[in-house]
Amino acid sequence: MSWDLVIETLTLEHHAVRLPVLGVTLLGFTAGLIGTFLLLRKQSLLGDALAHATLPGIGIAFAIMISLGLSGRALPGLLIGAATTGLLGILTVLAIRRTTRLKDDAAMGIVLSVFFGLGLVILKMVSNLPGSSAAGLEHFIFGTPATLLNSDFYIIAGTLLLTAITTSYLLKEFTLVCFDQNFASTQGWPTLLIDIALLTLVSIVTVVGLQSVGIILIIAFLIIPPTAARFWTHKLKTTLILASLIGAISGWLGSSFSSLYYKLPAGAVIVLAAATLFLISMLFGPARGVIPRFLRHRKLQRKVGRQHLLRSTYEILEQQQPNQAIQNLPISLSLLRQHRYWTRGELPRLIRQAKHEDHLERQPDGQIQLSESGFGEASRITRNHRLWELYLIKHADIAPSHVDRDADMVEHLLGAEIVQQLEAELDTPNTEIPSPHTIQPEASQ
Amino acid sequence: MLPEHPPEIPIAIHDLTVAYHRKPVLWDIDLNIPKGVLGGIVGPNGAGKSTLLKASLNLIPKTSGEVLIYGKPYQEQRDLIAYVPQRESVDWDFPVSALDVVTMGTYRKIGWFKRIQKKHKDLALEALDQVGIAHLAKRQISQLSGGQQQRVFLARALVQDADIFLMDEPFAAVDAATEEAIITLLKDLNSRGKTVLCVHHDLATVSRFFDHLVLLNMRIVANGPTLETFTRDNLQKTYGGKLNLLEDIAHALGNLGK
User: Chain A contacts of B176, Cβ < 8 Å?
Assistant: First the structure.
């Protein structure tokens, strides 16, 4: 395979694949958009049940069209059939939910598998009908974008238009029902109707997507892009846009590669493309990605550790030099170990870190001494800590005996602005503030 | 003779029965909540406290009976009622900000298909300010503490500018500062003539928070001013054989004298 062909396919210059690639890209955009709501409504599995329940309809529609002397593979007819049994599948789920005490997942699992099984049986039966060639119907199971015709492309474009317009007009209604259905209903919104509108759009996108992506994997096209998008943002509108883009890119890459390697099932390649984007999002997405979260956590940990070390040193200096201006003297590690509990290896690590940040120096005799900047920093941190303690005692309904532990946790989250506020509120001069609880006397040795 | 439900009563519940799977949860509830009370609904777990609120709001089907808001069915009086659901009833991981959630309280006024405008966001921000967390408006809701989430729900009810507030466990698992903020807010609403009814589980705070009390255990045990209804006798009838609660009750009654 030549590199030029790959480029031509991806840039839509290659005639034979332009239509399918463009079609699946638009479909991916649409699926990401409506899939976001499906995911937020926590109905992903219902979407899957719907997709699987379309198979009997495809077989039955084919048989009916053949018996009427039409071409058995006219897409509009097949789609109507698919939509009919798909809807029937959803209604069966709802009926099981209403009349029995079965849990949702069980009801959907039953419907999904039974309808799919029925579909396979019907497909086999219609392929045995005299004078019919049902070859091609199995495209609907795995998806073959190469079979897209001009007219099919218009159907996809129309679906995109319908979905985009509806979601932009019903954005707040959909959001409300997805977030808090009970509240929506107390406000007089017809939640069932809004739910039906949402599920109708999902059904249309599902049915239209069957030919290109296939029954088994269309649900991934609906669900993976929005889950990937959630790693990048906490905003709904951004999630919608990103999910659409991720869906479009998955569709574009997936359909391009499946047309280059003709024997690969398109649905599977599209899902793998989406999964790759998902993996990248999961690792690097700034809002909830694994790596950014790990880095944030480590940064906080280092900051907390540094503050503990500097404050402990400062407090020891204070205890050594009562009632006088504090001088920056070297202190021994054993004093630090007595002053505060450090886990194994923590203290040497923090000292190395502080040395690296020029906050302290190690004396030849093993003692440590704060540097000039470290001394200033230690004094500042100790003061903020005490301000916070005082604030908690004065303003919050928290027992003073708990303050120290809480302050240790929260002082690291205080910014300069809050510190200023505290100072103003507490009306304390910008000088040393004594610790509100008595300082432990130095352990006698 | 049937009790009367005059139209000046904010919430009049008439012979309400609710059953789940043939098992009754509420039996023949007949209840008038007078105007301008700050009321609590207390009772043991499974007594049907939340169910009473939900059935009044048509969120679950009634087996029989009716609920009248100022003498008219609830459907005609929606604008008068603000509902604060239990905090756990929604997914706090949802990609919206505190301000977005509070703005939902204005959706009914905005109406179908129309977009949210700045004035609606301003109203929401004002409500957030009233509950003391305007500075967190832009924060995604999963990054709020439990108490802050509860305040967001409260702000969403405030922005509806209702006359009656129905709240499901607004004090459940909130910090002391939030508890204080909520009760201050409720007392303020109350002083402006609003009727407030809260499902509540903490007997120790009942007498401090509420001036009206509904004691419920599948049926109404007592309904009236806290000073009259919050008695050992009524509590024993409500909590029945749950002996481990008797100590709580004694403690709660001890607080009454304060």
Answer: 396-398
ipTM greater than 0.95, yes or no? Answer: no
Structural domains for chain B: 11-256 (3.40.50.300)
- Measured between beta carbons, which residues in chain B are less than 8 angstroms from residue A40? 94-95
pLDDT per position as a tens digit, A152-201:
899 999 999 999 999 999 999 999 999 999 999 999 999 999 999 999 99
Instruction: Give the lowest-confidence range in A410-414, B27-31, B98-102.
Output: A410-414
What would the pLDDT profile of A105-131 be if each residue is shown by its tens digit? Answer: 899 999 999 999 999 999 888 877 766
Helix (H, G, I), strand (E, B) or coil at B139: coil
Q: What is the DSSP letter of B245?
A: G
Distance CA B251, CA A39 (A): 47
Q: 3-state class of A251 per DSSP? A: helix
pLDDT (mean) for A208-215: 88
Residue A226 pLDDT > 90, yes or no? Answer: yes
B91 to chain A: nearest residue by CA? A179
Rounded to an integer, what distance in angstroms lies between the CA atom of residue A392 and that of residue A435? 13
Q: Do A179 and B21 touch (CB under 8 A)?
A: no
Gap from A16 CA to chain B (nearest CA, Å): 41
Place of tokens 């006219």: A74
Local structure of A307: helix, strand or coil:
helix
CB contact under 8 A, B112 and A173: yes
**pLDDT tens per residue across span A346-401:** 888 999 999 998 898 888 888 889 998 899 989 888 887 887 777 676 666 544 44
Characterize B134-158 residue by residue with b for buried, 16 or more Cβ atoms within 10 angstroms of its Cβ, and e for exposed: bebbebbbeebeebbbbbbbbbbbb
Those residues of chain B whose CB sits closer than 8 Å to some CB in chain A are 21, 54, 57-59, 75, 78, 81, 83, 85, 89-91, 94-97, 100-101, 104, 107-108, 110, 112-113, 115-116, 140, 142-143, 156, 160, 176-177, 180
Q: Which residues of A touch B83 (CB under 8 A)?
A: 182-183, 186
Question: What residues in A contact B115, CB-CB < 8 Å?
Answer: 172
* Domains defined along chain A, listed by start: 3-288 (1.10.3470.10), 296-426 (1.10.10.10)
Determine whether the interchain pair B58/A185 forms a contact, defined as Cβ–Cβ distance below 8 Å: yes
